[in-house]
Amino acid sequence: MSKFLPLWPDQASTMAGQVDALYIYLLLVAGVMTAIIFLAVTMLAIKYRRVPGREAHPIEGSTILEITWSIIPFFVMLTFFIWGAVIFFKERTPPADSTEVYVVAKQWMWKIEHMEGQREINELHVPIGQNIKLIMTSQDVIHSFFVPAFRIKQDVLPGRYTTLWFKATVPGRYHLFCAEYCGTQHSGMGGDIVVMEPQDYAQWMAGGPSAPLQETGKQLFTQLGCSTCHRFDVQGRGPNLTGIYNKPVLLEDGRTVTADENYVRESILNPTAKIVSGFKPVMPTFQGIVSEEQLNALVAYVKSLNQPPTGTAGLQNQPAASPAQPQNMQVQ
Ligand SMILES: [Cu+2]
Question: Could you tell me the distance, in angstroms and rounded to a whole number, from the CA of residue 296 to the centre of ligand 1?
Answer without folding.
Answer: 20
